[in-house]
Amino acid sequence: MKVCIVSREFAPYFGAGIGTYAANWARALTDAGHDVHVLTRNHEGVLERGGSNYPGVTFHVIDPADGPPRLDHNYPYARHSLAVLKSIRRLHDRHGFDVIEYPDYWAEGHALSQAKRTTSEFDNVTLVCRLHTSSALCRELDDDTTYPHYAAYLDIMEHESIAHADLVLSPSTDLLEVTREFMQQHDLGEIKSGSVLRYPFDLDSVSDLRPASGAEPGSSANTVLCFGRMERRKGVDILAIAGQRLLERGVDARFVFVGGDTGSGPFGRSMRKHTRKLVDPKWTDRFEFRPPVSRAELGPLIDSARVCCFPARWDNFPNALLEAMTLGATVVSANTGGPGEIITHEDSGLLCEAEDPDALADALERALNDGILREGIASNARQRIAELCNPEQVVTEFERHVSGVSERVPVVVQGESSGDKPVVSVVVPHYNLAEFLPETLASIGRQTFKPIETIVVDDGSTDAASIALIDKIEKEGVRVVRQSNAGLSGARNAGLAASRGEFVLPVDADDILSPTFVEKAVAVMRREPELAYVSALVGYFRQSPSRHFGGWVPVGLHRDLLPVHNCAGCCIALFRRDALNQIGGYSRELTSYEDWDVYCSLAERGLHGAIIPDFMLHYRIRSDSLLRTEVETRRQHLHARVLTMHPGLARDHTRVQRTMLSEQMEAGNLERQGLRYRVADKLNEAIKGSPVHGLVKGLAERTIEAKRRTKNRADF
pLDDT digit string (tens) for 567-618? Predict the structure, then answer.
């Protein structure tokens, strides 16, 4: 098979657990005879040394410029996901992949999974999503109760990339079930086909941890080693408490923590500082906290420790545990998540109840004091990993899972009309926009899908050019509905009432459609008849739709985000006419945000939509548009009215409140930044006459340029 592995992390160039998995997996597939391609970020050394470090693997890098800039809600993972899709399209045209695999974490495959769902270009490709641990679960385990809007978007994107994969593979049963439960709880779809497939692990991959002059196993008397990130979910604080209880019992032991710090301590504080503060001053000499060390330094630490401890509150399938067991270390772990499935209790390690310092202290005491037990564990641990994570066996199971994925049946979407009845009714509300209406109608006429009826609703136009144009297009055969001025909602409702199509597509009189939008949207509706609407990515333009200056990436109907942002789409979307009629059409009460209100009404009824991950909807920005004249000046009033119209929309009101709080805090930060800039401007004016001004300015310009270059190469 031709397999493409998408992973922005790839060892040894960048990343930790996911990068190590991706490297091991690429090697295992290549050794089994598959044609393996890796799509990753342009980390230093990837293109120069990747081929020699991983013979048989073809490396490709993602161009960050492929991710469109200046998007609303300008999150790096949205741009990255779109850049991945653009790269995959080029590579797939050239190589013709059979399988494309991406991780759940950071939503790398989100746009790709949307493309598989909404287009036919990947019909013959099996999309595989590899579970590692979603950002949402990481935040929960780290007791992070903040919920900024970027986190809300990321939750949706990560879990949609899972839901729309053909095959979901999890290294542990627990992770698969936890993911299913989260998706069900938050209405994020469901896993179509999920199976447990362990991570492959090559026993020889730990050879760099064993320098020639390595320490003898267990040579440091009663040392307990905990290595990995200093993170709440990793349970380092639990080990600090358990260690002191062990010392209180009179057990002579010392505890060494090795790993980078995180902000997962209480209320976002340093976890290392928090854990250190938990240690009673009388025991401080028994606890050592080290920063991350090189692998050449880590190996001797593992070898010399009496016990390696993994006290996580919950963990996936930690690479650190696999490495320690492969080196023959005596491991003690909480019996939760992946570790509970990796370790056979009392045979290849010891397990204890999670989040229980006393139970952890008991297990550590037993491991430290029972030499016979340690010898047995040491002799069995390596064999356990060899059997559980055998690369050849994992590849064989992978091949079986992929072959079991049924091919998607092509859907025929033409010929659905009866007689002269159109399938799609395009409703164009018009008021004094003669300058732009012809271009909008031309874009409708260029649609590759037929039959379409176009209904122009003239909402009481008053200027002579617009009145003349409406008369002209009516004589040319365009269906025109005339009415006294009733506003945008009234005009759309009039068009909805006059429509005959199964689907209704509102298009404002100054916006543009890409030629294949209707064809693709109808195909999605036919494939998924339960959908209420289909939309696409939105590009902003002023004069030419080929020159976007920004855009918008909607993600669909999500009830805990819709009260904060219109995340569903712009006014242009292909709706099921019955769905619009069921909610009563567009609210006449609102002078703007009426499309947001429609999406909220659909979401309240448990309906969903789909997004085509291409910029197919071109939204004209005019200085005199409602967006600029009405929304900008009355945003708070309009938003508040939408909220009062949908009091039962949110499924979890605390999530909505926390997201709104984050926006309030960010607004305050921006205001403070603005104050700093104003102060800086005044200082700049004050020193302009000084001889040092030119020197300072040049230094600042060079610093900014250096940072820009670094940022272009760095990971988002």
Answer: 999 999 999 999 999 999 999 999 899 999 999 999 999 999 999 999 999 9
Percent residues over pLDDT 90 in the chain? 82
- E-state strands within 18-140: 35-40, 57-61, 99-103, 126-130
What does the pLDDT look like over 108-161, one tens digit per residue?
A: 999 999 999 999 999 999 999 999 999 999 999 999 999 999 999 999 999 999
- Name, in order, each residue with C-beta under 8 angstroms of 499's C-beta and a sequence gap of 6 or more: 425, 427, 453, 455, 577
Q: Is the same domain home to 383 and 434?
A: no
Q: What is the CATH number of the domain that holds 589?
A: 3.90.550.10
**Residue 397: inside a domain, yes or no?**
no
The distance of Cα 569 from the centroid of its chain, to the nearest Å, equals 18
d(CA 164, CA 189): 8
What is the C-alpha separation between 128 and 191, in angstroms, rounded? 11
> Considering its fold, how many domains does the chain have in total?
4
Both 485 and 608 in a single domain? yes
User: DSSP string spanning 564-620?
Assistant: TS--S--S--EEEHHHHHHTTSS-TT-SS-HHHHHHHHHHHTT--EEEEEEEEEEEE
The pLDDT score that the predictor gives to residue 716 is 33
Nearest to 310 by CA among 291, 292, 329: 329
Find the mean pLDDT for residues 169-177. Answer: 98
**Gyration radius from the chain CA atoms:** 30
Whole-angstrom distance, CA of residue 314 vs CA of residue 137: 10
Question: What distance in Å separates the CA atoms of residue 1 and residue 6, rounded to the nearest whole number?
Answer: 16
- Tell me which H or E stretch contains 134: none
More confident residue, 72 or 559: 559
Structure tokens of 134?
């979603």
**Is the pLDDT reported for residue 447 higher than 50?**
yes
With beta carbons less than 8 A apart as the criterion, state whether 466 and 459 touch.
no
Same domain, 183 and 225: no
Domain of 271 in residue numbering reads as 207-389
pLDDT tens for residues 290-316?
999 999 999 999 999 999 999 999 999
Alpha-carbon distances of 258 from 230, 266, 389, 676, rounded to whole Å: 8, 20, 25, 39
Listed residue (514, 424, 512, 429) closest to 470, CA to CA: 429
